[in-house]
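Narrative of accomplishments. A recurring question from our advisory board has been how the design workflow behaves on a single, concrete structure rather than in aggregate. To address it, we present the structure tokens for one chain from the evaluation set, followed by the sequence designed for it. No filtering or post-editing was applied between the two.
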């Protein structure tokens, strides 16, 4: 028997948990959280004890003793910008996760891992959180110094998928140039230059293509008018950017399955909105290819929407001139977390220190 690893990926309406023995999956659970349950907690951080107890109960029901774990690893949250890598959860990280400047379920990942690890007498880690920042300095500047561009993207899945693709085609990630597009509830498109993400759109609250739940880049003048129209609160505007933007704003749903069903029934508006989202994605891919000087080894599509044949075909038609298109549907985040924990446990790397 090898190292047993517990991986935790908290989302807004679920907590995904995976148990591995080395590379071998033992258990894969999705613990669902209803709107009524969530409503009991004013803030996401208030859900910590409830979600931890739910995980422990589920593991016990499946006959697993956490005392046999070698490590627990959680999805990283909205902490300070940091380079990619594996980080041990420490006091500084606990503080920043508990007092994160933005609400997001990922803020619970490191804290859930830490709580369970403490009970088992082992260490807790995070890997490649959404705030991984390897951007070139020139990419940070926007048109005003008070509004710098920020690196907030699907770092965990992007990095893992990029490495997987490089392994499959026999090249080294640290020597490759790739454009990786994560297509999910939010959409991030990044330029991976020899192992670093040198440019990427802020996929959370206001940059890049619009997505199922996010507005992406909006015309600045119109946004300013909305902010000062007196019709909306600050919270309303934030919801427009992340949560109620994109497909939700145009079509009232964040489900690509529902959008495709409506298109199949002849809904012309749904078709136009879907194509507009794809059009924004291909423009962003082109921009990242330009950031790499046109020297691109592959364009990689990943995330849940990469399962959608129509979306993949649209992007491929417009972007295949840049480089070969590779498709890796899904998010694979739990498996990616386990892989990162394993390289620490095996002594391949030393975890980085968060400060």
């Amino acid at each position: 028997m090898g190292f047993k690893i517990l991986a935790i990926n908290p989302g807004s309406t679920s907590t995904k948990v995976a148990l591995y023995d080395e590379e071998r999956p033992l258990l894969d659970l999705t613990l669902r959280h209803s709107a009524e349950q969530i409503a009991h907690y004013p803030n996401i951080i208030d859900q910590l004890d409830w979600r931890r107890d739910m995980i422990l109960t589920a593991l016990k029901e499946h006959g697993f003793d956490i005392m046999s774990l070698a490590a627990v690893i959680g999805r990283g949250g909205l902490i300070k910008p940091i380079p990619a890598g594996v980080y041990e959860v420490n006091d500084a990280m606990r503080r920043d996760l508990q007092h994160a400047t933005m609400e997001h379920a990922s803020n619970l990942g490191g804290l859930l891992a830490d709580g369970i690890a403490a009970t088992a007498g082992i260490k807790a880690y995070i890997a490649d959180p959404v705030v991984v920042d390897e951007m070139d300095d020139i990419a940070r500047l926007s048109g005003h110094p008070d509004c710098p561009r920020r690196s907030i993207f699907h770092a965990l899945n992007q990095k893992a998928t990029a490495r997987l693709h490089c392994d499959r085609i026999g090249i080294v990630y640290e020597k490759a140039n790739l454009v990786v597009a994560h297509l999910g509830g939010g959409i991030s498109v990044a330029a991976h230059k020899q192992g670093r993400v040198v440019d990427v759109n802020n996929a959370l609250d206001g940059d890049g293509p619009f997505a199922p739940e996010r507005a992406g880049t909006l015309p600045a003048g119109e946004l300013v008018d909305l902010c000062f129209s007196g019709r909306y609160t600050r919270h309303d505007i934030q919801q427009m950017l992340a949560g109620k933007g994109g497909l939700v704003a145009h079509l009232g749903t964040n489900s690509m399955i529902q959008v495709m069903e409506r298109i199949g029934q002849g809904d012309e508006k749904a078709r136009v909105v879907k194509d507009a989202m794809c059009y924004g994605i291909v423009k962003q891919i082109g921009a990242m290819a330009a950031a790499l000087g046109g020297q691109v080894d592959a364009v990689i599509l990943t995330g849940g929407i990469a399962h959608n044949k129509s979306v993949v075909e649209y992007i491929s038609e417009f972007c295949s001139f840049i480089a070969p298109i590779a498709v890796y549907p899904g998010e694979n985040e739990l498996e990616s977390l386990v892989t990162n924990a394993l390289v620490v446990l095996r002594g391949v790397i030393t975890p980085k220190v968060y400060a």
